[in-house]
Design brief:
By secondary structure, the protein is mainly α. 66% of the residues lie in helices and 0% in strands. It has helices at residues 2-12, 15-19, 29-65, 82-87, 95-106. Helix 1 packs antiparallel against helix 3 (29-65). The protein is elongated.
Length: 107
């Protein structure tokens, strides 16, 4: 949430205040491109953080709604390894089912 607050501050800042310049115009076209690229990177990072929080909230909902089934694979029903849940608390699939899913996406 702290990261999203940081990105919110960046997005709400005007172009003038974001680069510390007194003018809202960049001196060079390359500066405008750099500014646009930095805004795009910030947006992508904020979007990634937002998706991660959404997945965590969904995992918490699953945990509170049915704690007995939390940590079991949604496809095959096998218990998800503790190491996987420790690394990725919002994991819904075991390693083998996730690999099958990713292989299907590559084809």
């Amino acid at each position: 949430m702290k990261e999203l607050g940081y990105y919110d501050e960046q997005f709400s800042a005007t172009l003038q205040s974001s680069d510390g310049d007194l003018s809202s115009y960049s001196y060079h076209m390359a500066d405008q491109g750099t500014d646009a690229m930095e805004r795009e990177k910030s947006f992508l990072m904020a979007s990634k953080e937002g998706r991660y929080l959404w997945h965590l909230n969904e995992a918490l909902r699953r945990l509170y709604n049915s704690p007995a089934t939390f940590g079991t694979c949604h496809q095959c029903g096998v218990a998800i390894d503790f190491e996987r849940l420790d690394a990725l608390p919002h994991a819904r699939l075991c390693i083998s089912c996730k690999e099958k899913e990713e292989d299907g996406k590559r084809r």
